[in-house]
Amino acid sequence: MALEKAMPFQQERNKEAIDAYAQNYGAHREGISMKEMAEYYTKWANTDKYEVDLGPVRYKGPELAAETICELIKENRENVRVLDIAAGTGFLGQMIWKKGFRLIDGLDPAEGMLEAARKKKVYANLICDFLTEKKLDIEEGTYDVAVTAGGFGEGHIPCNAVHEMIRIVKPGGYIVNVMKERYLEIVSDYKDRLEPLMKELEISGKWKRLSRKVIPNYFLEYSGVIYVYQKC
Hints:
Helix content: 25-40%
Low-confidence stretches: 1-5
Radius of gyration: 17 Å
Oligomer: single chain
CATH superfamily: Vaccinia Virus protein VP39
Number of strands: 7
Strand order of the largest sheet: 3-2-1-4-5-7-6
CATH architecture: 3-Layer(aba) Sandwich
Order of helices and strands: HHHHHEHEHEEHEHHEE
CATH class: Alpha Beta
Structural class: alpha/beta
Strand content: 15-25%
Shape: globular
Mean pLDDT: 92
CATH topology: Rossmann fold
Number of domains: 1
Distance between the termini: 39 Å
């Protein structure tokens, strides 16, 4: 799909919004590899524009994820272990730290992003790695919550990585995925695959779905979807 055709706000002539969309599109362009994606994000982080382009004015992912986690965990937040997957520069970690969470780890394949996240001083550990179907160097049942905001997209977290998200969470723990809704249709790895896999894992007793919410204006004028699952 051509960039111009994909931009619902094109006629508004909002240069900052168009620039932000174009920058984000570069990280999700069709056919991008995971290695290229990580390198792209590192370069983006090094420009100091990332937090402007994907700040809360345009991109609601971290805010929505933080709100969701806070709804799930109302007490003893300082003892809850959270893994922020695709942590980026640490927006989400910073938000939940302010809400009382203290045991926060971050995972991201882009070292440049982690360097920025490290400066926020809210993460106990930062792990530079890709989330795929392969086992991470993390023990089974380590976390009470595994969350990703914007981690799913072209060349990003593959469909089968949901198995690993489940593995690293404790029984009774939560898996939260906040993503752009249209990726379910335009990303070939997810189309007719991601939601059926999620359902299959529910039927097989790996987890149960607590909610699925579609949220308008998740990124600019695009809708997002919030999935909340609990490990069985």
